[in-house]
Write a structure and sequence with these properties.
Radius of gyration: 21 Å
Order of helices and strands: EHEHHEHEHHHHEHHEHHHEHEH
CATH class of the largest domain: Alpha Beta
CATH topology of the largest domain: Rossmann fold
Structural class: alpha/beta
Distance between the termini: 70 Å
Strand order of the largest sheet: 2-1-3-4
Number of domains: 3
Shape: globular
Bound molecules: iron/sulfur cluster
Length: 366
C-alpha cells in the first residue's frame, strides 16, 4: 500500500482520491493551496520556473510533511517546460532530504511502456480490471464535477444570491466526493443542477466572455485569483472550453489508442498559428477566433508569467481581437500578483464589456 499524494488542480483531488483509494492506497490530499503553499514553492523552486511548478512543489512539500511516501505527477513532451516539472521537483525534494518515490504518468503517445509501468505500480496487487473500474469511477466523478462547474459559471451572473450559489457548489462537489458508485455520482450531479436552476434569478441577460489560456491557470482558482467567481459576481458569464475531462479524453485515451485527435480550437487556430507551440498556445488562438465567430462580448486570457506558448499566442490574439473589435484582457500571473490591481483591471474590463453591450443594444433598437 502506498501513502500517495498528488498536486492540486481545481477539483481533481476528488476523482484522484476515489481512484487511488479504490486501489487500496492511503491517499494524502495536500491542504488547499494557501499562502504557505505559495511561499514553500517559491522558496525552494527556481525563480524563473513556471508558476504551476512552484505551486505543485509547495503541494508536495506539504503532503510529504503529512507522511506521504509516494508522489504522483504528470509528465509531458513538446516545446515547453512541462516535461521537466517532475524531474526538477524530484531533485529539489530529494535535496531537501525527503525520502519518497515519484510515479510519473507520461503522455501515452510514444511512451506506452512507461504508462503501463506506472499503471502497474498504481494497481499494486489489484487486478487490471480493478484498475479499469477505479479509473472509470474517477472519470465519472471528474465529468460530474466539470458539469457542476460549467452550470455554476452559467448561473453565477444570473442568480440573485451569489453566496448561496457558492454554498450550493461546494455542497455539490462534496456530494460527488462522497458518492461510491457511478449511479450515486449521477444522482449528486442531477440534484446539484436542479438546485442551481431553482435559485431566484435576475432578469438581465449577462454579457458573455471566453476564458482562455494555460490549462493549470484555467483550472486552479487559487492560481487564477478566483477569476471566474469574480467575473460572475460582476454579472459576466464566463464561457470555458477547456475542461480536464475533455483534455484527458484527447491527450490520454485518443493518444493511447492512436486515434485522430485534431480539436476544433486547433483547426480554427491554423490560419493564424499553424503549428503546436507547446501547452495550450494554439488553443488560446483558436478559442479567440471561436469567441469572435460566436458573437461573444470579450476574451480573458490567463497564463503564468513567462509561459512561452501563451506569450506566442498573445500577440496573435491581439490581432484577431482588434480585427473583430473584441475586447481582450490578458493576465500574466504568478506569486507576485496582487489582488487589488487584478480586481481593478477586471472591473475596468467589465465596464468596457457592459458599455459595448449597451451600444450594440442601442443600435439594434434604432
Ligand atoms: S505551458 Fe507555460 S506554464 Fe505550462 S509548462 Fe509550458 S511554459 Fe510552463
Amino acid at each position: 500500500m502506498l501513502k500517495i499524494a498528488f498536486p492540486h488542480l481545481g477539483y481533481c483531488a476528488i476523482p484522484l482520491r476515489a481512484m487511488l483509494a479504490r486501489l487500496g492506497h492511503e491517499v494524502v490530499v495536500p491542504p488547499p493551496i494557501s499562502r504557505k503553499t505559495i511561499d514553500l514553492g517559491t522558496r525552494y523552486g527556481p525563480e524563473f520556473a513556471c508558476y504551476p511548478l512552484k505551486l505543485g512543489l509547495g503541494n508536495f512539500i506539504e503532503a510529504l510533511e503529512m507522511g506521504a511516501d509516494t508522489l504522483l505527477m504528470g509528465g509531458g513532451i513538446g516545446p515547453c517546460r512541462f516535461g521537466y516539472y517532475a524531474q526538477v521537483q524530484k531533485e529539489i525534494l530529494a535535496s531537501l532530504g525527503y525520502k519518497f518515490r515519484m510515479i510519473v504518468i507520461e503522455p501515452p503517445l510514444g511512451h506506452a511502456r512507461q504508462v503501463l509501468a506506472a499503471a502497474r505500480e498504481l494497481k499494486g496487487k489489484e487486478s487490471w480490471l480493478a484498475l479499469a473500474e477505479a479509473a472509470w469511477l474517477a472519470l465519472f466523478k471528474l465529468r460530474a464535477c466539470d458539469d457542476i462547474h460549467r452550470a455554476c459559471l452559467y448561473w453565477r451572473p444570473r442568480v440573485v444570491d451569489k453566496t448561496g450559489l457558492s454554498r450550493l457548489y461546494k455542497k455539490a462537489l462534496a456530494a460527488v466526493d462522497r458518492a461510491e458508485t457511478p449511479g450515486a455520482v449521477r444522482e449528486a450531479r442531477a440534484a446539484a443542477l436542479a438546485a442551481m436552476e431553482k435559485l431566484p434569478q435576475n432578469a438581465v441577460v449577462p454579457p458573455r466572455v471566453a476564458l482562455v489560456g494555460e490549462v493549470y491557470l484555467l483550472a486552479e482558482p487559487a492560481a487564477n485569483l478566483y477569476i471566474e467567481e469574480k467575473l460572475g459576481n460582476m454579472g459576466i458569464e464566463v464561457v470555458r472550453h477547456v475542461w480536464i475531462s475533455e483534455w484527458l479524453k484527447v491527450n490520454i485515451f485518443l493518444d493511447f489508442l492512436r486515434l485522430r485527435r485534431r480539436e476544433q480550437a486547433e483547426k480554427l487556430a491554423r490560419p493564424h498559428l499553424s503549428c503546436f507551440v507547446g501547452g495550450h498556445g494554439q488553443h488560446s488562438v483558436g478559442e479567440t477566433v471561436k469567441a469572435a465567430r460566436d458573437g461573444l462580448d470579450g476574451v480573458v486570457h490567463v497564463y503564468p508569467f513567462t509561459c512561452t506558448p501563451e506569450i506566442v499566442a498573445r500577440g496573435i490574439m491581439h490581432k484577431i481581437a482588434a480585427k473583430h473589435g473584441l475586447p481582450l484582457a490578458c493576465f500574466s500571473l504568478d506569486e507576485h500578483s496582487g489582488e487589488a490591481g487584478f480586481v481593478t483591471r477586471l472591473e475596468a474590463f467589465a465596464d468596457i464589456i457592459r458599455a459595448n453591450r449597451s451600444k450594440k443594444e442601442a443600435v439594434r433598437h434604432g
